[in-house]
Specification:
There is one protein chain. This protein has helices at about 45-50, 75-80, 100-110, 115-125, 140-155, 170-190, 200; strands at about 1-10, 15-30, 35, 60-65, 65-70, 85-90, 160-165, 190-195, 205-210, 215-220. With about 230 residues, it is α/β, with parallel strands linked by helices. The protein has a six-stranded mixed beta sheet. Helix 3 (about 100-110) packs across helix 4 (about 115-125), helix 3 packs parallel to helix 5 (about 140-155) and helix 5 runs parallel beside helix 6. The radius of gyration is 18 Å and the shape is globular. About 40% of the residues are buried.
């Protein structure tokens, strides 16, 4: 269970102040597939960083599995972060390492030592069994995102956060990646938070949260919204 209570986020500079999130209240049950949708500047990225434990500089409360993480010790946050897998729009694969090595690093971070059998199983799961020895710049955009998904699921994390995972992909490849994320959610039964600016993409989730200027304007189950194009 993930619970945000009156979470606000303000960015401050010498001559400016931007309120990115305003009193956000959000509860995400364990195992739910939720999408957060909004235009650029709506607060999506700020919310994602807080949920993913990448930003602790906010006001309000964030409970993950009943534990208060805002203000928690670094060691507590680090342990919790090991239970989160990240998929980014720009992939964020380490270019100087092979795809296999990228997964081995993730395995070592989450599990202490690389679990080679699991690395190979994850590569096969996403259809990259023959690409383990390839470097990221030798892959297509879709293959890079598949590699990023494989890296995210190493160690079977409790939470996966996908930040605009189709933003750099063409329509056909985006469908494939969304299908892969649906498969990951079903097979791992993990919580999955998908962040997007596109309502059609948001509709692949079980629940849709609309952010407007840092405020939750709508929070509904998918069946309560009109159907979008088949993804």
């Amino acid at each position: 269970m993930m619970e945000l209570s009156r979470v606000s986020k303000v960015y401050q500079g010498r001559n400016f102040e931007v309120e990115a999130l305003r009193d956000v209240n959000l509860t995400i049950p364990e195992g739910q597939f939720i999408s957060v949708v909004g235009k650029s500047g709506s607060g999506k990225s700020s919310l994602l960083k807080i949920l993913g434990l990448l930003d602790s500089n906010f006001t309000g409360q964030y409970l993950l599995s009943g534990r208060q993480l805002r203000g928690a010790k670094d060691s507590v946050v680090a342990r919790a972060r090991r239970q989160i897998g990240y998929v980014f729009q720009d992939f964020q694969l380490i270019g100087r390492y092979t795809v296999r090595k990228n997964l081995e690093i993730a395995s070592a971070v989450r599990q202490g030592v690389p679990q080679q059998d699991e690395v190979e199983a994850c590569l096969d799961w996403v259809g990259l069994a023959d690409k383990g020895a390839s470097y990221p710049d030798e892959l297509s955009g879709g293959q890079k995102q598949r590699a990023a998904v494989a890296r995210a699921v190493i160690g079977r994390p409790q939470l996966i956060i996908a930040d605009e995972p189709t933003g750099s992909l063409d329509t056909a490849t985006a469908r494939q990646v969304l299908g892969l994320l649906r498969m990951v959610h079903a097979d791992l039964q993990c919580t999955l938070v998908l962040v997007t600016h596109d309502m059609d993409i948001a509709l692949v989730a079980d629940r849709v949260v609309l952010l407007v200027e840092g405020v939750v304007r709508r929070d509904v189950l998918r069946q309560e919204l009109p159907s979008g194009p088949a993804l």
